[in-house]
């Protein structure tokens, strides 16, 4: 299954020059732990970084930086980990594990933003699939009881 089929397409975005306070308010209002930093390229929205709640805590709050003097690009991670929307689930999991990251940005063939995929999304999907497998054993047992009688 391509990752583009399961990624969250309702991505909360910010621009490089947005204030860090506005970014934090977006995280609060939308109940998200990260924002994708974007810029416009040839009429497309292209991801250029990511800003996480951890970035705010570690880089700003813990250092007692005055928040009204900071913009998103001052704190965002420019090392963007992105995968193609056509990439498979297992390959994406390996990619995330190999880089020690909890979320990846999903892009199309032009590099435009498609969605975001977090570790929590994968855990939810996999737990649902494992639950369905467990139910298969119970149905098989019930079917055997019916036929053996």
Automatic annotation (TrEMBL):
Residues of the CBS domain: 7-67, 76-133
Transmembrane helix keyword on record: no
PROSITE patterns: CBS
Keywords assigned by UniProt, alphabetized: CBS domain
Domain of life per record: Bacteria
Official protein name in the record: CBS domain-containing protein
Organism this protein belongs to: Syntrophus gentianae
